[in-house]
Here is the input.
Amino acid sequence: MRSLVLLTLLFALLPAPLAPAAPESDWTIREAAHLLRRAGFGGTPAQVASLHALGRTAAVDRLLDWEGKPDPDRLRLRITVTSRPSRAEYVQAETQEARQRIRREYRRRDVLQYSFLREWWMHTMIRTAHPLRERLTLFWHGHFTSSFRDVRNSYHLYIQNTLFRRHAAGNFRTLLHAVSKDPAMLEYLDNNRNRRGRPNENYAREVMELFTLGVGHYTEKDIREAARALTGWTFRGNRFVFDEHTHDDGPKTIFGKTASLDGGQFLDLVLEQPAASRHIARRLFSYFAHADPSDAVVENLAKALRDHDWELKPVLRRLFLSPAFYSRRAMGSRVKSPVELVVGLFRQLGMSPDGHYGLPLHAARLGQSLFDPPNVKGWPGGRAWITTSHLLNRYNICGALVGLPQDTLRSIREGGRSARRAAGMAVRMQRAQGDDAPGMDSGLEMDGAKADDTEDMGPSGKDGDAMEPDRRRGRGAGRGRGRRLPPSFDVLRAVKKADLDTAPKIVDHFLRSLLAVQPSAELRATLLTHLQAGGGFALDRADARARLHSLLRLIVSAPEFQLT
Here is the structure.
């Protein structure tokens, strides 16, 4: 409760917005760190310094430049099609028990592949050389939501994820058309059940209310007529199908225009509405900067969308160069989402994710389950991430990640069911082998997806088998027995590599690395006292490593660490 109060006070004390940001010549190291945190997931002090050395404009251009460039550190994913059992399979089954066994086996394989898919994406966000692309993929996943609970097909969610990555900073019009034909989306919002004479309005409503226009910029009649335009848009297997026999080709009146409109014409008509560009501009700014942009800021970005025919890169470039993006209202003012919290911790400390399984379950324990948003609105975000229980779990999880192996065990024992599930996932991933369960390796099986869906997976490399199974491991993960614990961060080696030879240098280094806000003198003094307790601190002390891990646990347990 004390931590929650401290965090609330911290928000209350945030300064008022500044005037426009400094010119290019006054580009600061703190602004470079802010850009890397928001347009990625943060970075080490060396990565921040490298970005700062480029200058503001070149730094933004560097983050936006990934087309045609390899991503050598990303893991490859072996994935298989998980189509539901066919009617023929059920007919051939001789008994009801046999049919139930078929359904259970499909569900088992699909759920396991879904778990691997979440692990793969989390590790990709940590490893990637193009963090803005993954950050945008995460943004579109929260904007055009689909959930595993409703889609019930891990392969379709994989296809959707590659779609978001491929169009991450491309053309929004193209993205809107593509996601409207995406099997996961068609299933999630029931448009595969949208037929002439029995229109289903779910997708038509959400595409206007949440995806493009916002509430108040359409009528109920527009929704009904749009649903008719989208009839016949369905999928078979893993591909979009337009079923002309179930399409309503009669005249419709949408936004005052009457014609025999189909789904594609309806989507183009939506983007002609003045509210569309402002809605997307506001969503982008709120995600990357802060939640309360002025009308002038929104209109400036919306104009860029219209002027560039819905191309996203010019808009993102303008956003990341704008004074509002570097204002005090934006910098260090947002609560980290659980994915930002975990991924950012790894990237800011330069930690390798190798051997760390169950990271998506840590994020889910904090309220953000990848591929499974709570509803069509996505995750609420902001201060909704902070509750008394979530805050305690944030401290425990991050403390375990930067602590010693025994800290991981303590986190599992004290973390309840979700923590034990995360540990259990490590065992399942280590035991999975061959065709019995999909997993991460240096190969990629792509049955049913377009060839260009694979281009973002990155080449295999020396780390390509980081999630390969370990057949020697047994059970007992929930009790901390029979498995290899995740490796602890070699903080002593990191300190020596950075040539940090005194306690003040060490404290200041990690505060700069991990905090988005200026630490108080009280916090710095507390950390320094802790590190030097019991006769001072030296790198050659027998307990130097344990002291440094303890220091990191204190920093990631500070309310200031929750902000980005």
The radius of gyration is 25 Å. Residues 9-22, 432-482 have pLDDT under 50 and may be disordered. Residues 491-562 form one domain.
